Each structure stands twice: as structure tokens, then as C-alpha cells.
Amino acid sequence: MFLSVVLLWFCVGFIVLQLKSRRPKNFPPGPPVLPLLGNTLQLSLENPLKDFERLRKSYGDVYSIFIGPKPAVIINGVKAIKEAMVTKASDFAGRPQDLFVNDVTKSKGKAGVILADYGSSWREHRRFALMTLRNFGLGKNSMEDRIHKEIKYTISTLEKSIDKTMSPQVMFHNAASNIICQVLFARRYEYDNALIKVIVQCFTENSKIANGPWAMLYDSFPLIRYLPLPFMKAFKNAETVENLVNEFIREHKKTRVPGDPRDFVDCYLDELEKRGDDGSSFSEDRICLYALDLHFAGTDTTSNTLLTGFLYLMNYPHVQERCQREIDQVLEGKDRVSFEDRHNMPYVQAVIHEIQRVSNTVPLSVFHCTTKDTELMGYSIPKGTMIIENLTSVLNEEGQWKFPHEFNPENFLDDKGEFVKPEAFMPFSAGPRVCLGEGLARMELFLIMVTLLRKFKFIWPEDAGEPDFTPVYGVTLSPKPYRMKVQLRTPQ
Ligand code: HEM
């Protein structure tokens, strides 16, 4: 009997030890890990940013946690992030392939670009997108023209609210979405278009699920993946959107003129024809997810930055007025602003960069993974380890900014009032996977902000109470919904 009990305990102990996730030798340190659960229960599933900050204080700039049974390394601060993303760029440029988001977007084998793993297929597709976006920037109907066309709609929405208050959420979301739709499908959608409403709703719901507790549980416990749990809704939404986009693509194939592309989809179809059977990774299957990737990556990010921007500009009226003075002076006699004008607007440039810094729109970047066994800050990290790049830790890092914890454009101005960009300005990340839409996003933010500030004055409504600057955590950070009062202004 005694022997049986000892044996039983021995077996239980052995099984628990086998289940316990262990840190490999010389792996970054971190909090104690529970069998199977890892550190999942120690993190706030609603918003882990505060937990990550707390863990950095205990374990340093490079530490590890376990999401269920899987280890992940969290990288904090300019020094460690630069070493990983820039110095050891290719070692850290992979993307995990076994997460909820991969399954929802069925990315294995036909990923667009965001979730594609590091390798020739990702490289070819990234190069193609950069080249196509650059070509759209040139000539007639350039990217600037497209953005200005869309701004006209934003202006007419605002004009309907002169001397009244309005909610800018839908307006900015639609502006960002339409600019990218123009690039992808050569068309825009009225703000109440039924089709765009379905797409936006599916995206919004999926962003919430992907960033919520159910996705974390899905990633942690593979056994629950086939159960009818709330994450199943995300698969349905993805299918709806995919069917809609496939319909656009079918339509494009019927109406296109080969060699005379109207938009990104036409460019891809031309490229497919050009390549024929050259064994490249270009395939018709990928257009849909590729287009969705760009739409998804370019919409919430830009619109949440604009929303945060106007929230601050209303509550720091002296900053808004100083921008307007500089804009009036530089654009005097000009019909509209061009992206080149930014070089003559150091203060506006500083304000837009400061807005991006405090917006911290993509706080944990997109998850990376190591492509081979490597080292970081003296620790060993095996191939295939998930890497979480904590951009928040850089955008408010003490020692990197004159005013790390307050909204202050002086963070981007030198003693002579010239615009300067500190190396810790990394809202687009860094290295080979740096945001592919950085150029487009910067152009959008500049042209939209300058045009609107030139024409309107934005006021925090008297009855709105104290502003709440704390953002809501999601795939992207967004400010809590607010209203703004709009007045027409005459440029001085
Ligand atoms: C203010 C606006 C934006 C911010 C803050 C932002 C930020 C980011 C960040 C942090 C990443 C992850 C980089 C990494 O994994 O290291 C990323 C990736 C990406 N972004 Fe953006 N983004 C913005 C706008 C856009 C726009 C307008 C587009 C559309 C063209 C876009 C397309 C992409 C794509 C395709 C990737 C994946 C790149 C790759 O994996 O190679 N982004 N972005």
C-alpha cells in the first residue's frame, strides 16, 4: 500500500514537472511559471501594458513570460529594441505562425504581408507593395491628390457642424479607410455605404476578439480551438470580408486594361501576368488577404492617431494656435498645402510627431519571432521564440525625452526651434519589418491636420467636463469617444 502511494505521488510529481514550462539555459528571466497556464493568469487580459511595465522593473529590459505553455520574450527600451530589430535584424524578423490571428486569416501559405514569415515570399511581396505605393506617389493623380480629394469630404462633414458639436470618430475612420481604398480599389465609399459598414463592423469586432481574453485562451490552450466558444465569431467575420473582397477582385479582372493599372489590385494582376510560371510566390489566392492587410493596417492606426491629435489640440489651445500661425504664414497665398511644405513648418512637424508619440497607436508592435538561435543583451534565445517589442517602453522612456510623461512639442525641437527627431521615436517600429505604410501615414497625417487646422478652430465643448487622455487598449490604442466643437476661421 505504502509503495503504491509513493509511486502514485512520484508519477503525479513527474507529470507536473513534465507539464511545467521551463526556461531554456541562459534564457531571459521572468516571473515563476505555472504548469500549462504559464503566466496567463498573472497578466491583465484586458490590458497587459501596465503588467509589462511592472515586470520590466523587476526583471530588466529583456525578460520572458509564458503564454500558456509557450515562451515569449518582451523587449523594452531603445537599446535592446535597436539591438534586436536593427543590429540583429534578420534574426528577429520572423512572425509566429501558430496564433489565433494566423488561423483567422488562414495566413499559412497565403498570408498577405503583415503575418507572412520572414523569407523570400514576404520579401517579394513587401518589395512589390513599396514599389507600387511609390509609383502611386508620382505623376498625375498622385497620392497627394488622392488624399486631398478625400479631405474635401472631411471638410464638408465639418462644415455641416459649424458652431455645433460633433463626434469625429466615424469621420476620421472613414477618411483613413477611403484613402487606402482609393489606392487598393480605385474607389471611395460614402460614409453610410452598406458594404463598407459591414467591412468596418467585421474588422472592429475581429480587432476586439483578437485582442481580448478569448484569443489569449485560444493561443494558450490548443485543445479548446475547436469548441464553439466566442472566438468562432471572428472566423465567420473573416469569411464575410473575404467574400466581399473576392467579389471586388472578380469585378477588377473583368474591367481591367492590362498594362494600364488603375489601382493596387490591377498592379498585382499585371505582375502575375508578367511573372507567368516563374515559380515566384505571387498568386491570385494572395490578392485578397494582401489587400485586406493593407486596409486593416492603414485604417485604425491613422484614424486613432488623428483622434488623439485633435483631443490634445483642443485641450492645449496654445499649441493649436501656434500651429495655425505657422500654417498661415507658410501657406500665405497658396491654394492648398503640399507634403513638401513640412520642411518650412518645424513647429507643426514637432506637434504631429508629439501626437504620434503620445498616441502610441500600436503599443506592442506586431509580434515577431526569432528566425534562428540568437543572442540579445547577453541572453540566449532559441529559434522560433515569440518576440514582443514593447514600443510603449521607448516612446515614454526616461532619459530619451525632455518631457517623457507630458504632451509637449518641445520633445521634437532643439534650442533654435528647429525640428529634431530623437532615435527613440519609433511608433512605426524599426528594422526590416518597419511599417510598410510609414510614408503614406506621415503624408496623410500632415496633409489632413494642416488643411483642417487652416480652415477650422477646434474647441473642447464647455459641457464635456475634464478630458480623459487615457487610451482604450485594443489591437491599436484609441482615445475614448469624445465630441468637438467646430468653428470656421479665416487664415490670418
Ligand atoms: C500612424 C499610422 C501607423 C502606425 C503607427 C503604424 C505602425 C506599424 C507598426 C508598429 C508595425 C509593426 C512593425 C513590426 O512588426 O516591427 C506596422 C506594420 C505594418 N504596417 Fe503600419 N502603421 C501605420 C500606418 C500604416 C498604413 C497607412 C499602412 C498601409 C499601407 C500600413 C501598413 C503596414 C504593413 C503592411 C505592416 C507590416 C509590415 C511587415 O510585416 O513587413 N501601416 N505598422
UniProtKB/TrEMBL annotation:
It comes from the Eukaryota. The keyword Transcription does not apply. The gene is LOC116319553. Its cofactor is heme. This is Cytochrome P450, family 2, subfamily X, polypeptide 9. Gene3D superfamilies: Cytochrome P450. Transmembrane segments: none annotated. One of its GO terms (molecular function) is iron ion binding.
